[in-house]
Amino acid sequence: MVLKQANRRKKKATPRMQWPKIRIGKILTPFFVITMVAAIYQLSLTMLDREITSIEISGPFQRVTALHIEDAISEEIDAGFVGADIDRIQDLIVALPWIDQARVARHWPNRISITVTEQVPAAAWGDKGLLNTRGELFIDESRHVPAELPRLSGPDTSSTEVATRYLAVREQLIPRGLDVRRVHLDARGSWEMTLGNGIDVRLGRKAVADRTDLFLNVVADIITSRGKEIDYVDMRYGNGFTIGWKGSSPTPVSDPERAKQEMLAARGIN
Which domains does the chain carry? Predict the structure, then answer.
């Protein structure tokens, strides 16, 4: 008898998934260290934090008092030496009327020092507003507007534009012995100035930058020499300007450079 042997196929063993062996200590140790560092940091802050017992405030104090400043920052001061937010304190102080800048610093163990700079009004805006030396509107409704301040006016959103032109013109007029008393921008975009000697300067609303340059480069020198005779200057011409004389007819000037040379010659300047 021939015995047939069945060739049995060996079943392949299914591989078992091997999970990486991680020691629990390697997970817990960094977590424990971070927790300890945070706890020590918090404990240190608690130990260092203490009541602020001294506030040193320095500044000119012509418009603002130290009491106004203390009232504005009282809640932050109550947070303690470490808990008080220095940036927040500074923002609260600068938000006060008439405060321009503020510097705040901690001094161990329980003192805060504050140095303030007050706004300097350079011009009046409209009836009651005040502009600083940078042309920024810092007071909308002032109880008292100094009479000696120049008057700037225009649409509500134009204070920066008007102040910028005023400062630029004034900077070039001062060396000539002239100044600006008033600058006005109307709703149509037309500009007009009044000088310190009362002469009106009409710039209009077209090519204002070019007309202003012409006024500064030519007309200002004529005003310097004959200002007492001039009532107004009208710059609203494409190729020149008109001088309005007191007690006599206006004089159109179509050749500004020639007019300047004649004026200089009359003064004996070559």
Answer: 54-118 (3.10.20.310), 121-266 (3.40.50.11690)
Q: What's the CA angle centered on 46, arms 44 and 51, to 5 degrees? A: 130
For residue 256, cis peptide bond before it (omega within 30 degrees of 0): no
41-83: per-residue pLDDT in tens? Answer: 554 555 556 789 999 999 999 999 999 999 999 999 999 988 8
Of the candidates 201, 198, 197, 123, the one whose C-alpha atom is nearest the C-alpha of residue 164 is 123
Instruction: Say if pTM beats, i.e. exceeds, 0.90.
Output: no
Residue located via tokens 């320095």: 58
